[in-house]
Amino acid sequence: MAAGITYTPIATYTVSGSTINSVNFSSISGYTDIVGIVNTIVSSSTNAIRAIVNNDGAASYSRTVYYGVNGNASALSTRNSGMVDMTGQYGIGTGSNSVTFKFNYPSYASTTVQKSILWQAADNVAGSVAVGSSLYPTTTALTQINYNNKSG
Question: What's this model's pTM, rounded to 2 decimal places?
Fold first, then answer.
């Protein structure tokens, strides 16, 4: 049996004392799966994190989201979105709270399967959590991931 899953940082980006609207990771290759972790301050429901892969902002992503805000559970499903959108409608980052987003890109390099993007987020101050899955319906390998500010 394998000793366990290990992660190797292949890229990092740290910002201190300033505001940015976008971080791009490109020329991604050589691994089976990728995990992206974004720690940020989200100041409002319209100032939220989104992920766009392969610079494709066309309306081709779908998503299913399960979320809870202060003990109240909800779910939603959408199709034909231009991004993997993690907005304040899930109660994540509705104040100036530090929020951690985790994105999983399994089999990102495969050219035989469509791409799933699994994600989760928690805002302990707002008392909310969200988990979701998105489908990027292409068999093209993911070589670029852009995390950006939805309102920026």
Answer: 0.83
